[in-house]
Specification:
With 275 residues, this protein is mostly helical. 73% of the residues lie in helices and 0% in strands.
Length: 275
C-alpha cells in the first residue's frame, strides 16, 4: 500500500512537470479570452491579489539602502522571506486557497477540456451552460474539501497529541491539505463525465499519491508572486488530466463514459499524442 502511494506520488509529480511542456506544445491558452467578461473579471481578481505582494515589495524598496552594497544581499534575502510569508499567509493558513479555485474555474474549465480534446481526439461541450454547471460543482467540491480538511487535520492533531507525536503534526496536516486541494483540482477531470462528487472522491482515493502530488504542485505554484493565483490552477488541472488519462489507459483506474461532445467538435481517428 505504501509502495503504491509512493509510486503514484512520483507519477503525479512527473505529470506536473509534463503539464508545462504539454501546455506550451499545444498552446492551450488559445481561446481563453473568448470567455468575455469572466476573463476580464479574473484579471481584476488577480490584480487585487497581486497588490498584496506589491505592497510587500514597496515596503521593502522604501527601506532598502542602495548606497550600502554590503547590505543589499541581505535585503534581497529579506524580501524573499517576506514574499514567501505573504504567500503562506494567503494560501496556507485559511480558505483563500479554495476561493482562488472558485474564481479561476473558467481558466481550469478551458484548459482541462482542451487537454482532453487533444488526448482523445474528441470535441467537448464548452458552452456557457456547461461552464455554469462546472462552476456550481466547483463551489460544492471546495466547500466539501474545506470542511473535510478542517475535520481531518483536527482529528489528526488530537491523535498525534495522544501518542506524543506532536512533531508529526505539521507534516501530516500539510499532507492532508495537499490531498484535499488535489481532489478539488482532480474533480475538474471527473466532472466532465457527470459522475457524482462521491464517486469522484472514490476514484481519487484509489490513487491518493497522485492526488497529493497534484495538490503539492498547486501549493508550490500558488506561492509564485503575482502570477501564482493564475497559473497554479490551470497547470494543476492539465496535470490532473494527463495523469488520470494515463491511469485509465494503463487500467489502474476504470475508464469512464465519453464526455458530451461539443456541437462543433467531432471524433477523429488519430492516435492521442504522447505527453
Amino acid at each position: 500500500m505504501i509502495g503504491n502511494f509512493i509510486s503514484d506520488f512520483w507519477f503525479g509529480l512527473r505529470s506536473c512537470s509534463e503539464a508545462l511542456l504539454f501546455i506550451r506544445r499545444h498552446r492551450l491558452w488559445t481561446g481563453i479570452w473568448n470567455y468575455g467578461w469572466l476573463s476580464r473579471f479574473l484579471l481584476v481578481v488577480g490584480l487585487l491579489i497581486g497588490l498584496k505582494f506589491f505592497g510587500v515589495f514597496w515596503g521593502w524598496a522604501s527601506h532598502v539602502k542602495v548606497d550600502q552594497p554590503q547590505m543589499l544581499g541581505a535585503s534581497v534575502v529579506d524580501l524573499y522571506k517576506q514574499m514567501i510569508q505573504a504567500g503562506y499567509s494567503l494560501f496556507f493558513m485559511g480558505w483563500l486557497k479554495y476561493v482562488i479555485l472558485i474564481l479561476t474555474e473558467v481558466i481550469v474549465f478551458h484548459f482541462v477540456r482542451r487537454s482532453s480534446e487533444i488526448l482523445t481526439g474528441q470535441g467537448e461541450d464548452a458552452s456557457f451552460k456547461t461552464f455554469l454547471g462546472a462552476q456550481k460543482r466547483m463551489i460544492k467540491v471546495v466547500l466539501r474539501a474545506w470542511v473535510l480538511e478542517i475535520i481531518f487535520t483536527t482529528l489528526a492533531g488530537i491523535a498525534l497529541g495522544i501518542f506524543s507525536l506532536d512533531f508529526l503534526k505539521d507534516p501530516v496536516n500539510f499532507g492532508l491539505q495537499c490531498y484535499f486541494m488535489g481532489f478539488a483540482i482532480v474533480d475538474n477531470y471527473n466532472e466532465r463525465y457527470h459522475i457524482s462528487i462521491k464517486d469522484s472522491a472514490k476514484r481519487a482515493k484509489e490513487v491518493a499519491g497522485t492526488v497529493v502530488a497534484i495538490g503539492l504542485c498547486t501549493y508550490v505554484l500558488l506561492l509564485v508572486p503575482l502570477l501564482g493565483a493564475f497559473v497554479a490552477p490551470f497547470i494543476a488541472g492539465v496535470a490532473a488530466t494527463l495523469a488520470f488519462f494515463e491511469l485509465e489507459k494503463r487500467g489502474v483506474l476504470p475508464p469512464l463514459d465519453t464526455p458530451v461532445a461539443s456541437e462543433q467538435g467531432s471524433p477523429t481517428d488519430h492516435q492521442p499524442p504522447t505527453i
